[in-house]
Specification:
Helix content is 34%, strand content 20%. By secondary structure, it is of the alpha/beta class.
């Protein structure tokens, strides 16, 4: 539940010296997050301005219809707007290294995130989820588990609904997916349960090194809540604290939540020595989804959800669009859309979930990642690879002819090449290991174009 306005204002004053009469707030970025912040501040009686580096932010006109009197500066960052601000609320899509932001901070402006504002406004438990891969699946999965348990749950953050918009819901529990960009500017979140699912190379164009990236991820554990730790990931395992209540999960060894074998040799999801459900009853492709299920169970356990009720939710969970989504089976060939695999780790996880070798479609914007990390799993799990997009050549060089590689100019051509290569019993997997913005609006658009091209084979 959200607190009343008086309690929220007191919290904001004590933690950030934010006061309606004296604070001058600049919202940086007129996207979904920035607009959610604007609505939140407006309801509490704060004065604020908004700036965006784009000439015509897509949401600007719709925003002006609701708040026509709000000062909005577009077409670049004007130092004068930053210099008079006491507080900056910087959207995740904007780097904190922007010169205007750095200068404003040096002059005394305080950084506050939308997640900070949210944390100051609720007294219901928050579950916080981050990681290079699987966070959207686990967030959605846990939300469904909470609903099965009869909870009123608000689900959002980096996924779907901005966190501050969830305050409109009368929720018993909030489940937030958080990105590294959100976490790097968040300081007061104290989640009842939190997890870093895994850490692999991603967003190095912003974080520069994987150590910096992991550091930002680890900030999700600030506070006193239960830490949920993936002991299969050495970077995450190093985050474990002996001074905190912890639950562990693993798909490789025994943990608090793990995969165990029954007397009939059937693999099951386990909690300590208790059998929860057969792994075969999980309706999702890939062993990495077993890890996602175990992490969701651990997080749910940490906030008091019944284990077997959560398993009932798992048995009917169909997964997310563009995440290991079966598009069609045509002439014995299965076509799978994993367009949400926007980094190497997600692609690796998808490939490792297969018993037979697959034909892989990959490529796009590598975001500065070292594509050499793809080579071992591609060699083991792929029959051939079709590459497309901005960094296709970079990936081809990294693979170094470990499997046959083909190049395509667009998705339609990639699908046609795969159709010519595939035999009955094969799977063709779109798992790009790259961002999509070099050729598409977003990963959803990329996945939709893949599905359209695949279904076009039926004509």
């Amino acid at each position: 539940m959200s607190m009343n306005n008086e309690a929220i204002l007191q919290s904001l004053k004590s933690k950030f010296s934010l006061e309606p009469k004296h604070s001058k707030i600049l919202i940086v970025g007129l996207g979904n997050t920035g607009i959610s912040v604007a609505h939140y501040l407006h309801k509490l009686g704060f004065n604020f301005a908004i700036t965006d580096s784009r000439d015509k932010p897509p949401l600007k006109e719709a925003f002006f219809q609701v708040m026509p009197d709000t000062p909005v500066f577009t077409g670049g960052f004007d130092d004068s707007a930053f210099q008079v601000s006491t507080h900056l609320v910087v959207s995740p899509g904007v780097s904190l290294t922007e010169k205007s932001i750095v200068k404003a901070i040096a002059q005394g402006s305080k950084i506050v995130s939308d997640i900070d504002l949210f944390a100051c406004s609720v007294d219901a438990p928050i579950v916080a989820i981050t990681g290079s891969n699987g966070k959207s699946t686990v967030t959605t999965m846990l939300g469904e588990m909470a609903k099965f348990a009869g909870k009123k749950v608000g689900v959002g953050g980096n996924l779907g609904t901005p966190a501050l918009d969830l305050l409109e819901q009368d929720a018993d529990l909030f489940v937030l997916e958080l990105s590294s960009f959100q976490l790097e500017r968040t300081s007061v979140l104290n989640a009842a349960a939190a997890t870093v699912l895994n850490v692999s190379a991603d967003h190095l164009d912003r974080h520069e090194t994987i150590a910096n990236y992991a550091f930002e991820k680890e900030t999700i554990f600030k506070g006193t809540g239960v830490m949920v730790i993936n002991i299969d990931d050495p970077v995450v395992n190093d985050m474990l604290s002996s001074e905190r209540e912890t639950l562990t999960f693993s798909i490789k060894t025994k943990a608090d939540f793990y995969i165990g074998n029954q007397e009939n040799n059937e693999e099951c999801l386990m909690w300590t020595n208790t059998t929860l459900m057969p792994l075969s009853a999980l309706p999702l492709e890939g062993r990495h989804n077993a890890a996602n299920a175990l992490s969701a169970l651990a997080l749910g356990k940490a906030v008091g959800l019944d284990l077997f009720t959560m398993c009932d939710a798992l048995k009917v969970f169909k997964g997310l669009d563009h995440r290991m989504q079966r598009v069609a089976e045509i002439k014995g060939v299965t076509w799978v859309n994993d367009s949400k695999a926007t980094n190497i780790g997600a692609c690796v996880a998808a490939l490792e979930g297969y018993q037979r070798k697959v034909i892989l479609i990959a490529g796009g914007d590598a975001k500065g990642a070292d594509m050499n990390e793809l080579s071992p799993v591609v060699k083991e799990k792929a029959k051939s690879v079709v590459l497309m997009g901005k960094d296709a050549v970079l990936i081809k060089q990294a693979l170094n002819d470990c499997v046959p590689v083909y190049e395509a100019k667009n998705m339609g051509q990639a699908v046609q090449i795969c159709a010519g290569l595939a035999e009955s019993g094969d799977s063709v997997l779109l798992s790009p290991a790259c961002a999509s913005l070099d050729q598409y609006k977003n990963y959803q658009d990329r996945g939709n174009q893949f599905a359209k091209a695949v279904l076009g084979l039926l004509r």
